């Protein structure tokens, strides 16, 4: 069929799970969805049972569950093998005293061991804490310390980034390697696999309200906060996997995110396995030719990625794209930052499919606003509320604003995916619910007359670079650890490729000269201690930072306005000093 541009892009023909959005929305109840789970009959709950063991019990043991591809390396793992391997590791974890509710951190590259470790920990009722492989020592330490990690599963390379003596609660470090590649005090998992026979009934039955996975996300102030999700979220993850990802029996599904980010766990592991998909697991870094090669080799049919990735692929050009056969792809989705209409256009013209935007957050546990494959897309909009989800655009006093007006994007807090708590921080948790019954996202948006939601930006200082949320405070704190830096204010600067880049304004300590070399040294310092995406791509030296008069808070809003040559708005709180730019010397 031909596609017309303008306000809407009509759906492509297809046998989609959810066809009539309005009708389904009307008759929707979460209780009805619960009936698809085995625990509805048996009363025995564990998300990993529903993801893995259940499919084996129902005769799908031979079906391919995970397909790992990295360079020329390929490993396949059926549902039966996935059950056996997770049983085996779960038995080992139990043998080492891991109990329900314990925090098991997983610090591994995106590979089968990573997936198996996360699933095995949850199988015995523990809380899995997946860590992004790009994290450096301090990022790992902050998270594991906050959470009182009892066990760490890592490999010989990433394991070198942590110092075991830093963690008072850490009892065991498992390393996916032979004993000779482990250092003292570490346990070789290869050896344990040979020594330990897997138990048969290894599953720990839990309550729907029990936690199963924790994801850390940046806050605008202070250290990253731990968002804990409960087994109940499986209801929401499963049904969005079915209706939004539109997973069918024959689908080969690929989510490009690492399980250390919530997209890589919820939509990289749980939602697709709950729907018994074949899940592609890709190792290695982002490069257009690798990604196209994965699609071609694994015959990916459903592909979930991010605007930044689509923009990079677009920038690679047609040559690259034309040298691969991507005809298996039938459904593409996006998340993490606003999806540019140009990317949707690229998808239609070059891949022959629409790219479906989805909106949610680490805290919300699963999709809230979506574009369904059977529905029209309005480029520039994130889509409409998923059935069972009530979106509200509220003003400062918590009242809903009229259609078309910008306000705070909020959601009724009555759905099963919503976080259970912020680890060790009930006050922070409460701050999400200032108005009765509403979850406040921190995003600004408006809704049109058809219920389509249009994202306007975040109402705090959060930076979103390549789909990753970066809290300015974490970067600023790191910057001022450098001996040359006295003060730092960090903002997101709009960038065509990455959405935003991290830009830092710093004030140097006396005795230091603002040379290009010094600034590069400072940048690399942040990169080696936090993560590549947190390192400022631009650093500018100032004589003073703009701050509030009374509390001395850095006014990032003013820095941003200055950077963008815009009016800074209300500056009545601004301290008297003049923030002169300092020229570089060499
Ligand atoms: C923030 C949440 C869980 C998804 C991955 C990011 C931004 C997310 C969209 C979208 C515009 C989006 C929002 C949100 N965001 N999806 N489709 N369009 N912005 O999870 O790290 O918790 O970040 O990402 O600002 O609040 P996260």
UniProtKB/TrEMBL annotation:
<feature type="domain" description="AMP-binding enzyme C-terminal">
    <location>
        <begin position="474"/>
        <end position="549"/>
    </location>
</feature>
<dbReference type="Pfam" id="PF00501">
    <property type="entry name" value="AMP-binding"/>
</dbReference>
<protein>
    <recommendedName>
        <fullName>acetate--CoA ligase</fullName>
        <ecNumber>6.2.1.1</ecNumber>
    </recommendedName>
</protein>
<dbReference type="InterPro" id="IPR045851">
    <property type="entry name" value="AMP-bd_C_sf"/>
</dbReference>
<keyword id="KW-0436">Ligase</keyword>
<feature type="domain" description="AMP-dependent synthetase/ligase">
    <location>
        <begin position="55"/>
        <end position="423"/>
    </location>
</feature>
<dbReference type="Pfam" id="PF13193">
    <property type="entry name" value="AMP-binding_C"/>
</dbReference>
<dbReference type="InterPro" id="IPR042099">
    <property type="entry name" value="ANL_N_sf"/>
</dbReference>
<keyword id="KW-0007">Acetylation</keyword>
<dbReference type="InterPro" id="IPR000873">
    <property type="entry name" value="AMP-dep_synth/lig_dom"/>
</dbReference>
<dbReference type="GO" id="GO:0003987">
    <property type="term" value="F:acetate-CoA ligase activity"/>
</dbReference>
<keyword id="KW-0067">ATP-binding</keyword>
<dbReference type="InterPro" id="IPR020845">
    <property type="entry name" value="AMP-binding_CS"/>
</dbReference>
<keyword id="KW-0547">Nucleotide-binding</keyword>
<dbReference type="InterPro" id="IPR025110">
    <property type="entry name" value="AMP-bd_C"/>
</dbReference>
């Amino acid at each position: 069929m031909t596609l017309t541009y303008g306000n809407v892009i009509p759906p492509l023909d297809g046998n989609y799970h959810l066809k009539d959005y309005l009708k389904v929305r009307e008759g929707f109840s979460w209780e009805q969805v619960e009936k698809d789970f085995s625990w509805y009959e048996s009363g025995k709950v564990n998300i990993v049972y529903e993801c893995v063991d259940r499919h084996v019990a129902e005769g799908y043991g031979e079906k391919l569950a995970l397909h790992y591809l990295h360079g020329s390396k390929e490993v396949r793992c059926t549902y039966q093998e996935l059950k056996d391997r997770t049983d085996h590791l779960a038995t080992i974890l139990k043998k080492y005293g891991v109990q329900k509710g314990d925090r098991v951190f997983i610090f591994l590259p995106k590979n089968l061991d990573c997936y198996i470790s996360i699933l095995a920990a949850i199988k015995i009722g523990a809380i899995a804490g997946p860590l992004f492989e790009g994290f450096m020592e301090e990022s790992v330490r902050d998270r594991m310390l906050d959470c009182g990690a009892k066990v760490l599963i890592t490999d010989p390379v990433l394991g070198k980034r942590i110092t075991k003596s830093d963690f008072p609660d850490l009892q065991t470090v498992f390393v996916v390697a032979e004993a000779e590649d482990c250092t003292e005090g570490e346990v070789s998992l290869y050896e344990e696999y040979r020594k330990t026979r897997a138990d048969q009934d290894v599953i720990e039955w839990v309550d729907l309200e029990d936690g199963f996975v924790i994801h850390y996300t940046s806050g605008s102030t202070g250290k990253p906060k731990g968002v804990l999700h409960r087994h109940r979220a499986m209801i929401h993850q499963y049904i969005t996997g079915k209706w939004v990802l539109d997973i069918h029996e024959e689908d080969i599904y690929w989510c490009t995110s690492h399980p250390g980010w919530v997209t890589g766990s919820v939509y990289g592991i749980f939602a697709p396995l709950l729907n018994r998909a074949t899940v592609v697991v890709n190792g290695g870094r982002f490069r257009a030719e690798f990604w196209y090669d994965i699609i071609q080799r694994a015959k990916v049919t459903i592909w979930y990625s991010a605007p930044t990735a689509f923009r990079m692929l677009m920038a690679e050009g047609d040559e690259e794209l034309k040298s691969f056969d991507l005809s298996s792809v039938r459904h593409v989705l996006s998340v993490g930052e606003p999806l540019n209409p140009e990317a949707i256009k690229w998808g239609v013209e070059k891949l022959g499919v629409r790219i479906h935007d989805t909106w949610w957050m680490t805290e919300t546990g699963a999709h809230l606003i979506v574009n369904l494959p059977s529905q029209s897309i309005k480029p520039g909009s994130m889509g409409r509320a998923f059935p069972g989800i009530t979106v509200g655009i509220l003003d400062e006093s918590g009242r809903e604003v009229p259609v078309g007006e910008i306000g705070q994007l909020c959601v009724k807090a009555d759905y099963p995916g919503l976080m259970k708590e912020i680890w060790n921080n009930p006050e922070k948790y409460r701050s999400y619910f200032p108005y009765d019954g509403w979850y406040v996202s921190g995003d600004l948006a408006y809704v049109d007359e058809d219920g389509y939601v249009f994202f306007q930006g975040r109402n705090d200082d959060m930076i979103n670079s390549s789909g990753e949320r970066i809290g300015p405070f974490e970067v600023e704190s790191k910057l001022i650890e450098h001996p040359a830096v006295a003060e730092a204010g960090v903002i997101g600067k709009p960038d065509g490729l990455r959405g935003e880049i991290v830009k830092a304004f710093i004030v140097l300590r006396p005795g230091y000269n603002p040379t290009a070399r010094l600034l590069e040294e400072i940048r690399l310092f942040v990169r080696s201690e936090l993560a590549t995406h947190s390192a400022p791509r631009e650093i500018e030296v100032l004589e003073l930072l703009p701050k509030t008069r009374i509390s001395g808070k850095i006014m990032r809003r003013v820095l941003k306005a200055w950077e963008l040559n815009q009016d800074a708005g209300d500056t009545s709180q601004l301290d008297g000093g003049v923030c002169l730019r300092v020229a570089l010397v060499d």
